[in-house]
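Illustration 12: DUF2029 domain-containing protein.
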Amino acid sequence: MQMLARRLDSRRLSVSLIVIGCVLLGFLLRFLAREHATTDAVQYLIPWYIFARDRGIGGLGEAFTNYTPFYSYLLLITAQFNGLGQPLTLVKAISFVFEFGCAIVVALIVWSANKAPSRACVAFCCVWLAPTVIFNGAVWGQADSIWTFFTLVSIAAFMQHRNGILPFAVAVAVKAQGVFLGPFVLGMMLRDKIHWAWLAAVPAVYAALAVPVVVAGRPIASVFSVYMEQAETFHRLTMNAANIWVFAGSVPYQMGVPIGLALAALGGLALAALLARSKREGPEFILLVACASLMIMPYLLPKMHDRYFFAFEVASIGLACLNARYLPFPVIAQVSGVLSYLGFERNIVMGLLPAALCNTLLAIYLVLDLSRDESGFRFPKLAWLGYASSTAGLFAYLLLADAGENMSLTYLLFTGLVVGTALMVIKGSRCASVPERSVAGAAPAHPPVN
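Figure caption equivalent — predicted structure in token form:
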């Protein structure tokens, strides 16, 4: 018994040291990228921060950002630490806080599902160090970790058979991209028999968070037209997003927007109906549907940015930690995400095609997986090796050759290899259909949530 206790203590110590090392490494990477400035940072983020710093609370009466009021409050709070770093560093610190929060929530999701501390620690470390997470906040200073944090809290609540509409409403109030979880929330409302009146929480939360800026004198019309103004900022079917619109370059903008909205609406309703009618139970299935919602919405919608798959990239890490059969999800998503980011960061737009093809495979796999009851996994080692080597070759080609619009046989070869081996990885991760196993710690059938 003493020997067993020593082994357990040694294992806990090893896990703790690994987690501490990952946390420190994450902070180091963010520190090294703190002064990296994109054009968006120079034109928007830094001026917004300076305005908040100079005007203080009195500046709330003006629309000094093109985001919702919630982000203005965060800038005002951050400005209180002025002098501890450069303006851009302090702005990026907002993302760092919520990225850390995302890592904690994903770890808690994994822990509550299977009570395995090692898996929860892996989930935390993988989110905190994920390449797209580093890219989004540390390199670009973007705020996608904020709405993603509240999205994950909503998912975690539903997984524990609690009403998660309020955190979902906060996510939508932070950024419109919070609506990507909408089909999942609708399905859970139907599944758990949550009263329709709870939908009023979405506009109510937005209105409540807007009270300080309205009191400060900002016109109501300006407060409630933020999302409409954002929608009119760009007139392109895809803003480097690796989605279906990468393949529709010849479709006119005026035609593509309504078609994309209709496709997303139909896809979202179908997903909600599937969740509501499915007999499958357990936290793994709930998280799987949430990931499907976060993937399919930005995949079908037009006018999406490269970073709008952020929530799926983070949530899928938790799913893989619950069942290693889903390991292709976060791995391929990270590769696709970085390939997409290179379009803005380095103007290497040729990475969008393989990224979109890989995301297409993931979307199809999600739909097929949701339509079947099966579990178990196996590792297609040869396929993983092929995917890793072909992906490395593609990144090397894009970075070293600095491929913009130029297409070559080498590019086509690497693109084909990446997509082909990604398909092998996804296909190899599926086993013969067997009855779904219960997950340790899964709750039994639950009563309606009112």
